[in-house]
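A reminder before we start the practical. When you read a complex entry, don't treat the lines as separate problems. The point of joint prediction is that each chain is placed relative to the others, so the output describes one connected object in space. Small molecules and nucleic acid strands, if listed, are placed in the same frame. In the example below there are two entries. Take a minute to note the order of the lines before looking further.
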Amino acid sequence: MPVSPDSPTPERVPRASSPSDAVSSRDARGGAPTPERVPRASSPSDAVSSRDARGGARTPLHTAEVPGGWTWSGVLRRSTALRVTDLSGSGNVALTALRAADTAERYCMGDTLKQQFTSRLSTGHALFSDMGRVLLSIVHDDVGGHDPFGGLGDDRLLRARYGATTYQDDRNARWRSGREALETELAKHGLGRRDLGDVVNLFSVVDVAADGATVLRAGHSRPGAQVLLRAELDVLIALYAGPHPHAPAGAAEPGSAAAGPGDADDTAPIAWAPQPVRLDVEPIDPPGPDDVVRTLRPENARGLAAGELAVLLGPVG
Amino acid sequence: MSTTEHPLSTAGDLVDLSDVPGARVRESALTADTARADDVVPAGDGRLVRLEAGERLRIVDLAGNQAADTLFYAADDVGARYSAAATIRSEGNVYLRAGSTLVDQDGVALVTITGDTCGRHDTLGGACSQESNVVRYGEHTRHMHACRNTFLRVGLEHGEVLQKRDLAANVNFFMNVPLTPEGGLTFEDGISAVDAYVEVRAERAVLVLLSNCPQLNNPCNGYDPTPVRLLTWDAATAAAGDPGAPAARAGTEPEGSEESER
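Here is the predicted structure of the whole assembly.
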């Protein structure tokens, strides 16, 4: 689908000449452990028609690694998918989504949860907009659930947890909260603070006891775990690779005591150790009649149909 | 924390209900005769109420089993608004109840629940809309009144300060939406009752945007939406009349009351 001239334009990065180059360049920086690689065909034309068993991977249109604590944004076009890989196994990605053609329409936690009677999101679930349309569908999930209500850490929380930081002192090793990072990322698309709505925290799950008490599940993800999000409309995505706000403290520095959020005043600052993720933008077929999302619930079929109607009426998805 | 039978026997204390997990109640000592405003909101109507710091707003479920969909904003900066996620994280609990402090997206207190005879309120289920009704119940429910129409209408009538992009995840006072350990989310009959109420104290000047839910398609209103009553007390009257009200949760104080290192 064409995007209107005033809509945000996706970054178009030249395709890497070979996937192995991307791997070796990351390793050369001494970064994350080498992730599980999805088998890829040698030529792009072969790749488009070839799939593997892990959610239909095709040769990516674009691959990027987001270092821990950093962000990515771009328009994911209808009939493309975003594959997110937890490189270290202890990653968390806060992701928000807005309809590119009308950013007042955006991912809505409340509708998403009540329409699917769930408090976590996995394969077959849809991320609904506030207008009854599916923005993104989860078509593959290695970890069995993602958190839709944990939200974002803010500066106050991170200051208590990690101590004060400034760019002057810490350069690019300074911490940035998910709140600050995603507000800034959306501002690059002309959006403001009021446009940062709900987020999904990929690779994390918050367990809820009968009395409502919350606890972030430990060890939920693993190295190389992937989730594949299919765009059902042209969707502006902004994401942040950083710690889940319910995380007790992150990895402690050697010799320092681990601390929960409430203990911050009594404890030495905890190391800021956000984890990187890899992003692959891939072509994908639109959902057919037997699609895992469409068939999960009648609500999802109606939400997909509403998006298909919007595409039909155009001019933009 | 002691437990007691509902209805309450002890005014002023925070009390965990034994029969509803997580429910926590407190009777406010304020009485209607000292309120500065007393207003009945019919089902399907909305209000935008400004509260100064220290003022109290009580929402009374006059006929029982009603849902009051509510949003909070900093009155002088509507970009700072109630955050369900930040509140859940700050409280360590997905349910709002007596003593809960509702915070904005930066973790700063907006209001604290000072009175609550219901004991548990939803903040995950969101507000109904025409569009979500179609998804949930089918095309035949498209042309039915809905909370988000009310929110938008009230915003339009108040200088358009609040627009659709300001409709963050809301509170559903009196609504019972239990989460299951397996990750399910269910809508159950309300645990509210005739004349049950929830009362909040503004921790700074706030705008309260309320929709008295008109939903006819599920049991959140018992299929029969009914009026709620709004009582407002000024700060001095509230502080004198109910001095034992719970304080805001520590660590949620407005900016300026903590050291700013960054």
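Discuss with your neighbour: DSSP finds seven helices and twelve strands in chain A. What might explain this?
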